[in-house]
Amino acid sequence: MRVIDSSSLAKFTLKEPSWELVRNVLSERCISIELSVKEVVNSIWKRALMHELTLERARQTLARFLSERPFEITEQGELYEEAFKIALKTKSTIYDSLYVELARRKSLVLVTSDRVQARVAKETGVETLFIE
User: Fold this and answer.
1) pTM value surpassing 0.85
2) What is the pLDDT of residues 44-74, one digit of tens each?
3) Which domains, from first to last, does the chain contain?
4) Residue 120 to residue 125: CA distance in whole angstroms
5) Dihedral of the CA atoms 16, 53, 68, 36 (nearest 10)?
6) Which of 29, 40, 79, 109 lies deepest, with the highest CB count within 10 Å?
């Protein structure tokens, strides 16, 4: 099992370069936080707004993501205190720090496509799989 963040989930959902690598990771069972759903949906919305996806394609992508959701969601409420400490220590966002704290707490590898988050994870002692 691995922790997967929204940057990699968005890469997979939107079929961005290297999305197949994310698909392979997802086939091995991943967990994430509720925030990831919101962030991926926001990525779809942004692509539609920027006319990179038609409205119909965006709706189809959203429906597929919500119905297939190839990862488990875990409670994030218990992560806030430690994630806040990580954010302050590393000068990163609380959003990124929540994923890092989940991986740290469960002793799991963090899968990310976000360079800053990968740096923060490494600074925190969390093993990271960076998918560019």
Assistant:
1) yes
2) 999 999 999 999 999 999 999 999 888 999 9
3) 2-130 (3.40.50.1010)
4) 9
5) 70
6) 40
- Helix, strand, or coil here: 27? coil
52: DSSP letter: S
Q: Quick check: 107 and 97 in contact, CB under 8 A?
A: no
For residue 69, the model assigns a pLDDT of 87
Query: Which residue type, as a one-letter code, is found at position 123?
Result: E
- For helices 34-49 and 6-13, the axis angle rounded to 10 degrees is 50
* Calpha distance 30→83 (Å, rounded): 20
Place of tokens 């488990």: 72
Q: Token pair 């006319």 is at which residue? A: 51
Q: What is the DSSP letter of 2?
A: E
Contact 50, 80 (CB under 8 A): no
H helices of 14-114, where?
Answer: 19-26, 34-49, 55-68, 80-90, 94-106
Q: How far apart are CA 91 and CA 125, in angstroms?
A: 16
